[in-house]
Write a structure and sequence with these properties.
This is GTPase family protein. The protein has eleven helices and six strands. The protein is of the alpha/beta class. A six-stranded mixed sheet has the order 2-3-1-4-5-6, with helices on both faces. The longest helix has 23 residues. The two termini are 12 Å apart.
């Protein structure tokens, strides 16, 4: 119902445009509100992938394994909140034998183009980073590095462990060092995050980074899968702005079509900013 209210507001902001133009824009809006993002999760077994997903997103995501590795082939999980869907892909490979590089390269070549983002978890007390480094450089091609967000997981396990609920100042300093180290090793496109699901630490900042890294069309539908405590004002603003800008870009694309009569082009340009601002206003109706 609220969806329809949003659609009406947008439709009326488009009056004055020829019907085929407004239809085209409405089609784009429909596409955007139904977009199903796909997020990949990587990291050695036991890094805390399932735990992070369960902490971030509403609804149970996947069984958390205590001893045996339970993730082998890419496992796909479809999450649903209301009318919105998202897919999580639990990707295997990191930490396995490098003799299987070719096999994984093929798998990732197939998967990566369809992923909006990859969360790559590295356990805070894991010192065998050469394995991750090897995988990053050999299997993930340079053209996909912008899709990777590194996350230092289980930060509560960093030395000196105190067994308390909260991280100590010394632990936070050591996490800072670990972040620097990862920047040196991977030269990641996005800044490295650090979290602890157990200590409930760093998750909000991580969620904000994740939303920031997503392609514009994917941020809003991912936000609707987040637990309410992670839907911070920063997160919502980013998604709202992305939604508006994507619709603005759709209008620009129409006005750039070669056969558009000059007066129509002028009308499109005149309404553009209004449409974008209406889109931002009705964002809540959709997500
Ligand atoms: N101390 C601590 N333990 C954690 C944290 N997050 C996860 N764990 C534990 O680490 C173990 C592995 O977590 P999972 O979430 O199953 O790890 P995974 O990466 O999904 O593992 P696979 O599916 O086997 O690849 C579990 O026993 C979790 O309870 C954390 O932030 N702190
Ligand atoms: Mg798992």
């Amino acid at each position: 119902m609220r969806n329809q209210e949003g659609m009406y507001s947008l439709q009326s902001s488009l009056t004055g445009l020829p019907e085929w133009v407004s239809e085209r824009v409405m089609q784009k809006i429909h596409q955007l509100t139904n977009y199903e993002p796909v997020i990949g999760i990587m990291g050695k077994t036991g890094a805390g992938k399932s735990s992070l997903c369960n902490a971030l997103f509403t609804g149970e995501v996947s069984p958390v394994s205590d001893v045996a590795a339970c993730t082998r082939n890419p496992l796909r999980f479809r999450l649903q909140v209301g009318e919105h869907y998202m897919t999580l892909v639990d990707l295997p490979g990191v930490g396995e034998s490098s003799s299987r590089d070719a096999e994984y390269t093929a798998l990732y070549r197939q998967q990566l183009p369809r992923l909006d983002l990859v969360l790559w978890l590295i356990k805070a007390d894991d010192r065998a980073l050469a394995v991750d480094e090897h995988f990053y450089h050999q299997v993930i091609g340079e053209s996909y590095r912008h899709k990777v967000l590194f996350v230092i997981s289980q930060s509560d396990k960093v030395e000196p462990t105190c067994g308390g609920e909260k991280l100590s100042i010394e632990q936070k300093q050591n996490i800072g060092r670990k972040i620097c180290l990862l920047h040196e090793l991977f030269q990641p496109v996005h800044p490295v995050c650090a979290i602890s699901v157990r200590a409930k630490w760093g998750l909000r900042v991580m969620a904000e980074r994740m939303i920031k890294c997503l392609p514009r069309e994917a941020s809003s539908p991912v936000v609707s899968q987040l637990k309410p405590s992670f839907r911070t004002p920063t997160v919502q603003k980013k998604a709202r702005d992305d939604f508006g800008e994507t619709i603005g870009t759709a209008l620009d694309a129409v006005s750039a079509l070669p056969l558009i009569p000059a007066p129509v082009r002028a009308v499109i340009r005149a309404v553009r900013d209004t449409v974008v601002s209406v889109a931002r206003t009705v964002w809540n109706f959709f997500f």
